[in-house]
Design goal:
The chain is α/β, with parallel strands linked by helices. It has one domain (2-143): Ribose 5-phosphate Isomerase B, Chain: A, CATH 3.40.1400.10. The protein has helices at residues 12-24, 43-55, 69-75, 89-99, 113-125, 132-144; strands at residues 2-7, 28-31, 60-65, 83-85, 103-107. The protein has a five-stranded parallel beta sheet with strand order 2-1-3-5-4, sandwiched between helices. Helix 1 crosses helix 5.
């Protein structure tokens, strides 16, 4: 599995925790910044990661900002992305099993590093269950393909 990782200035410390976790889990990754603590704009980091996941260059993405909200809103604008903003372990597992989420967003100002590591681990190791979820996830893709209600 190849993971694309990025944060804005509000998520830089938690991104480093997750980078270390990926090393420990021996998961291949690429770090897309940001490189400094100066104020940056989260869409500038969400879009490059989301586009690379959508294209298949990376299997999954992890995006971190202060709340995780800006990153998740931005990533979900990219066709093919199912970004889940998660701050608990149950949802981390469930969003993989049910939603086949391909990007995880977290907020450094919301949770501590220990919980973030548990969430990321659960999300990385959990598999999509398919089955009855296939129809629901499929409808999201159909809507992206311009179906209207
Ligand atoms: C940056 O101050 C903050 O707005 C950003 O990290 C994020 O929380 C936005 O959703």
């Amino acid at each position: 599995m190849k993971v694309a990782l990025a944060s804005d200035h509000g998520g830089i410390r938690l991104r480093e925790e997750i980078r270390v976790l990926l090393e420990e889990l021996q998961i291949e990754y690429e770090d897309f910044g940001c490189d400094c603590e100066d104020s940056v704009d989260y869409p500038d980091f969400a879009f490059p990661v989301a586009e690379r996941v959508a294209s298949g260059e990376f299997d999954r993405g992890i995006l971190i900002c202060g709340t995780g909200i800006g990153m998740s809103i931005s990533a979900n604008k990219v066709k093919g992305i199912r970004c889940a903003l998660v701050h608990d372990v149950f949802s981390a597992k469930a969003t993989r099993q049910h939603n086949n989420s391909n990007i995880l967003a977290m907020g450094e100002r919301v949770i501590g590093p220990g919980l973030a590591r548990e969430i990321a681990t659960a999300w990385l190791i959990s598999d999509y269950e398919g089955g009855r979820h296939e129809r629901r996830v499929g409808k999201i893709g159909e809507y992206e393909g311009n179906r209207t209600y």
